[in-house]
DNA sequence: CCGCGACTCCGCCCCTGGGAGGAGATCGCC
DNA sequence: GGCGATCTCCTCCCAGGGGCGGAGTCGCGG
């Protein structure tokens, strides 16, 4: 059971290099090459590979979009090709976008040949694999995102009184001062006071920013309405 | 420059096994052992290791909490020990919790000795590393989060023109009409027109509701700012 | 007891925001 | 060519939002 691989990179030399590395492995076969995203999508459709080695920076259609087309098609069709993304630098934007696009792996181009081959085998089995520096970044984002969700008290939010948080929640539901007043059985003036306090305490300008802050801080979250 | 490691597991036999594997490496030294979370935290404080090999299931204080204490202390103190979590099963809850707690790595206990040693070296360098099956799960969660953002078209949103969506995004970042105008190089009047169209098309009253809608529809999501 | 913080309420003033209504430019499609 | 959609810009109007200053009640803790 050989692993069918397609190489996608706009530099022919690089493709040749990878091909030589991979052809040396008995269980891996390079069945196709592509120089840009559009070709890649066509090749994948035509050749039904197991793994696509994808450069992220390419002309015509970039690697992210190509990854989306290829990996995304797995939802309807059964056997989608797994995409292993390669890049020279570990630029944030590309990493995040590629992973969201459904890539199964992400390696830097300076990866040792052994690691590349090992990565292809892992990915062909349906697992996933990231370069350590990227894993680290992912985990950082992961760790950074949740503290704010577990205890929705990112410092500044802790300065608000109970009532102010209550008002902020209602602001974040798009309610006007009058509506909030009716909801809380207080006068509109009182609501304005609370809103004012929230704004000054959080260093915000208007209720729109307050609503945004409520979502960003995790105080309210999508779907909770 | 040897890597100082502490082993944390409630099974003495397992600790001995790991110790034998690691002591065979010239650049790794096992400087301590602990049988539960509380001991682990003490040992880390006392011995200042580089890497903590942590079992996730333990009496007294579980691995997640211990990880939180150890990795979390890195925010104030400078050199926090990196935590490499080990587990028998790749149970979702533990994985997610441990990663959120700040673990730098996650491996299954059936990992080959070579891989374990390699993982410790990677983590000692400040990078991160996950078992492929866990990487896969992480990416799936990652990718699963986006589909709703890829087609942010809960019917009504589809009625907006490209420009209107663009304006809506900026409104959802708390920007005023004047700021949006500056950002898009158009007049404030134009922005007001677009905002007005967005409101009427979506059946909303003001820009606050528009911002809320942007979050609720998945057009923008927390953390994406 | 007195101070302090939280919550409540008032009036005044100004500015942003949003509605109404119109208009010119470009593009693509019939 | 004509038509619709999109994007752009304008004026007039006024209600709501937010800053500012002031003030009253309650409960807690020094």
TrEMBL record, chains A, B:
Keywords attached to this entry: DNA-binding, Phosphoprotein, Transcription, Transcription regulation
Keyword Transcription regulation: yes
GO-annotated biological processes: phosphorelay signal transduction system; regulation of DNA-templated transcription
Keyword DNA-binding: yes
Domain called Response regulatory: residue spans: 4-124
Molecular function (Gene Ontology), one example: DNA binding
Residue ranges annotated for the HTH luxR-type domain, each copy included: 153-218
PROSITE patterns in UniProt: HTH_LUXR_1, HTH_LUXR_2, RESPONSE_REGULATORY
Modification type 4-aspartylphosphate: residues: 55
Pfam families: GerE, Response_reg
Annotated protein name in UniProt: DNA-binding response regulator
């Amino acid at each position: 059971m050989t692993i069918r691989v397609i190489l996608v990179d706009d530099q022919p030399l690089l493709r040749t290099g990878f091909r030589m590395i991979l052809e040396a492995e008995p269980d891996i076969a390079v069945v196709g090459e592509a120089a840009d995203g559009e070709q890649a999508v066509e090749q994948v459709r035509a050749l039904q590979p197991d793994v696509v080695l994808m450069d992220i920076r390419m002309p015509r259609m970039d690697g992210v979009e190509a990854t989306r087309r290829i990996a995304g098609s797995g939802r309807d069709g059964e056997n989608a090709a797994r995409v292993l993304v390669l890049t020279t630098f570990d630029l944030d934007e590309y990493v995040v976008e590629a992973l969201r696009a459904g890539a199964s792996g992400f390696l830097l181009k300076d990866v040792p040949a052994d690691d590349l081959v090992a990565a292809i085998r892992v990915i062909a089995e349906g697992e996933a694999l990231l370069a350590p520096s990227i894993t680290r970044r992912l985990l950082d984002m992961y760790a950074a995102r949740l503290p704010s969700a577990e205890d929705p008290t990112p410092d500044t939010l802790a300065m608000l009184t109970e009532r102010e948080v209550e008002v902020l929640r209602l602001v974040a539901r798009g309610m006007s001062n009058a509506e909030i007043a009716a909801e809380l059985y207080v006068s509109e003036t009182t609501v304005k006071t609370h809103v004012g306090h929230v704004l000054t305490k959080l260093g915000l300008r208007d209720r729109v920013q307050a609503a945004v802050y409520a979502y960003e801080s995790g105080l309210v979250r999508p779907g909770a309405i």
